[in-house]
Amino acid sequence: MRIKFEVNGTKVELDVEPRVSLADCLRDTLRLTGTHLGCEHGVCGACTVIVDGAAVRACLMLAVQAHGEHIVTVEGLSNDDALSPLQASFRKHHALQCGFCTPGMITTAHALLTEEPDADAERVREVLSGNICRCTGYIPIIKAVLEARAHYAGEDAPP
Q1: Against a cut of 0.85, is the pTM above it?
Q2: What are the two backbone dihedrals, phi and then psi, of residue 138, each rounded to the nearest 5 degrees?
Q3: Helix (H) or strand (E) holding 7
Q4: In a designed cystine with 111, which of 14, 55, 137, 158 is the match (CB 3.0 to 4.6 A)?
């Protein structure tokens, strides 16, 4: 099937099999390998991308369902070679170790803070509870997200 969508600000048009997941399309066809595949059942959150502002499990969405949508992957959250404030905060707080869950954590947190820049620790924990990390524990991740709130609120605070 021929589909068209926008990913990280770039319009794409391609042919895909109707059964191909968005995650496989992003990784294999478009070579956006920041979207990781873990469980492939929507449980771990490693494949989370942003579709029209909402955090979505790319392993559960078919590529054909992305037709006409605006998609942002972890690669689309930073400008040029600089890290986004959220990514920099993750680095500062050592909120990643192996890095496998990190793209899903960051895209999920970005979607949350875009909608709720004043989200408190309880809300951050609730939203990130669907993302599994086996290495860091969640304390540094929560600290990183909470520190990045200032950027999303429009305050001029360095990460």
Answers
A1: yes
A2: -100, -10
A3: strand 2-7
A4: 55
